[in-house]
Amino acid sequence: MSDFIVRLFAGWIKVQAQGDDAQPLVTFLVSTGFRLWSLQPTEAGYTFYTTLSAMSPIRAYMAEHSLEVHILQQGGAPIEWNKSRRRPFLWVGLLTAIVLVVYVTSRIWVIDASTPGLSLEARQQLVTVAEDAGLGLGTVRSQIDLPKIRAIVAKQLPQYSWIGISLHGMVAIIQVVPLVSRPQLHIYSRIVASAPGQVTRILVYMGDPEVVVGDRVKAGQTLIQGAVTAPIPLPEGSEKKPGQDTIVTPAEGEVWANVTHRVTVFQPLRQSISYPTGKRYMRKFIWIQDAAPWQYWGWQPVPFHHYVEKKEIYLLRWEGVNLPVKVLKIVYNETKTKVRRLQPGQAVAEATQRATSEMTRKVAALGPVVQKSRQIRRTQNGVWVSIVWVVNQNIALPKDRNR
Fold this sequence. Notes:
Strand order of the largest sheet: 11-9-15-21-20
Largest sheet: 5 strands, antiparallel
Number of strands: 22
Strand content: 35-45%
């Protein structure tokens, strides 16, 4: 370490000495008190490193002896200082770079709401409110009042129970804890039918059933009433007719019924369809925060008469943080139109497939299918296909008395 410090501040040279007096030169320098490093013998002499101050004694020794000396390299603080004195613009550039680094690193240039699970809209809202509160891009770090900004953001966004803002270099990170309200305990007074159907099973957990198995019910009809009626007991031997007493209770239970679902699809025999040709044209934009997008690619008009437009937005990230810069890409895919002709049987098959797919999505989570049927009606221009499925499903829907 001490040799490195000497070379750095005192300067150093790499010397190549050739001739009969090369070894006496080495002995002379060592005996005079100069430091030598990496002494290596060569075919005609030696190479070594020494301090810059040994330059004058070496030249004086060369004048009196048969010796050829070459300075291969040189460096250290004195050498660099002499170079910089001859290049004043180097100092101007260095000073400018230092000022620029100090300016950039002393300010906030990225604001990120990094709480997992937040939607893009919620993140953007947090960043916008924080900027309005004083955490704007380019704000000097020392001038940022974090407690005041937190208070303003918390007041404007009461949906968060905790808001934290921390500064990490040029990045401001906003973290929040959403406020989760306890749901109110709601007791329903009756249960009605969510769809018309024929009742197949009744499970009453609380309340009084208003229908029995086999009944056909309409949508909105009361199935279970939140009230239980019972006779009032009379003393033994009493000749009075017993009265009725009603106890109001919540309504809870399940009512299963066979519900009919219908899907109707029309399939024309002659149909114009569009298909992609594989050709496409692209335009690219740079989008900085709320400014208008700036186009940097694709200035020519779209070279297609018919096309499908698709927009793609990419967020630029740095060190895992979303920068306030987006890349917007619009892709135009050329399409052409052709006429498709179907036979009646093909139209029926395609319409049936479309109707079945739609019905499957419609009743997938309702319950088991107990019956299926299909109806076909042919016309001059196409076919109508209706499929009917009967699904055994829970039609119990809780309701308040006033609803």
